């Protein structure tokens, strides 16, 4: 089966598309049987929440993921290292439960990005904690035209400062602490780098803020301009980091592609447009959420109680226009 029309997908405003299944005895076998239709539904809608699949443990989640994609990939240039789980899955990104993680596209600052994300909820939180989604073409259309034009013209820039005190270390981000290997990776991936006297590393990379979907051709707002900007941080956290490291030494920040700072007003506009176009559905134990990472942004809302959501990064994709050269 390859057509998404073969699935009875429930479409409701304010919620991602939902497919309810009747507790299949073997979730992996069910996923294999419906692989084509599920992937077609994700391509059509941008995301799909599969409810009732019964993902009770990491091994089952990994078996399902292995039926739905031919290639799960690791993570390079991580901000907060995930813990590996069975079958190529990872834990969720470490993030304080009481702090939301705003909308973003996974690894949109890398040259090779996951085309498909798989989220498996083993334990739903007591309250909150939804992995919400937002349609990138809709967000693009809702943003101010002059702002979009500037980002299309210049792209966006990510700046990072690696040290041993906060965030991912050089070894955690690049998979090695060998300077030569790190430099080779940076050169191969369009990343400017500068070693600091204390042994720390600072990098800059410029990427396109708007890309075309490789299959549908839709123009998508595809970046982490707001998520990784200093103005998205809680005020007390931002003030502390600026006081300790200075603005040029922040663990991460974003700028316009020409290097100009991005103001708090721009970050606020982007996040407001995301919020106005957010679809959410509270997690239930055993849920599976499939997300087209280029078509759809995702977030994680604050929560209470235990929460275990495993993540699969799949279908590595290189976008021809993702690294501007002008």
TrEMBL record:
Signal peptide: none
Cofactor(s) the record lists: Fe(2+)
Residue ranges of every copy of the TauD/TfdA-like domain listed in the record: 25-310
Keyword Oxidoreductase attributed: yes
GO molecular function: dioxygenase activity
Record keywords: Antibiotic biosynthesis, Dioxygenase, Iron, Oxidoreductase
Entries under SUPFAM superfamilies matching the protein: Clavaminate synthase-like
Top-level taxon of the source organism: Bacteria
Location of region: Disordered: 1-22
GO biological process: antibiotic biosynthetic process
UniProt xrefs under Pfam families: TauD (PF02668)
Entry protein name: Taurine dioxygenase, alpha-ketoglutarate-dependent
Source organism of this protein record: Geodermatophilus siccatus
């Amino acid at each position: 089966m390859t057509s998404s029309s073969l699935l009875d997908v429930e479409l409701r405003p304010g919620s991602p598309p939902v497919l309810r299944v009747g507790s299949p005895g073997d979730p992996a076998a069910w996923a294999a049987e419906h692989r084509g239709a599920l992937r077609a539904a994700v391509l059509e809608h941008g995301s799909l929440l599969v409810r009732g699949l019964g993902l009770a443990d990491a091994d089952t989640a990994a078996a399902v993921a292995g039926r739905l994609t031919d290639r799960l990939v690791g993570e390079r240039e991580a901000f907060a290292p995930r813990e590996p789980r069975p079958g190529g899955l990872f834990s969720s990104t470490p993030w304080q439960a009481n702090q939301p993680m705003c909308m973003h596209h996974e690894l949109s600052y890398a040259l090779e990005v996951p085309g498909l994300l798989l989220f498996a909820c083993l334990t739903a939180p007591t309250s909150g904690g939804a992995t919400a989604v937002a349609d990138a073409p809709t967000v693009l259309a809702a943003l101010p035209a002059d702002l979009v034009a500037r980002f299309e013209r210049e792209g966006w820039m990510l700046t990072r400062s690696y040290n041993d005190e906060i965030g991912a270390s050089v070894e955690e981000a690049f998979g090695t602490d060998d300077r030569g290997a790190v430099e080779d990776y940076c050169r191969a991936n369009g990343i400017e780098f500068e070693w600091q006297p204390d042994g720390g590393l600072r990098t800059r990379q410029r990427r396109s803020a708007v890309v075309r979907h490789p299959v549908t051709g839709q123009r998508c707002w595809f970046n982490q301009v707001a998520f990784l900007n200093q103005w998205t941080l809680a005020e007390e956290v931002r003030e502390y980091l600026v006081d300790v490291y200075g603005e040029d030494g922040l663990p991460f920040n974003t700028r316009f592609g020409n290097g100009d700072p991005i103001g708090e007003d721009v970050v606020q506009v982007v996040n407001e447009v995301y919020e106005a176009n957010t679809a959410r559905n509270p997690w239930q134990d055993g849920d599976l959420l499939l997300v087209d990472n280029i078509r759809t942004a995702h977030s994680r809302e604050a929560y209470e109680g235990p929460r275990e959501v495993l993540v699969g990064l799949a279908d590595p994709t290189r976008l021809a226009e993702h690294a501007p050269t002008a």
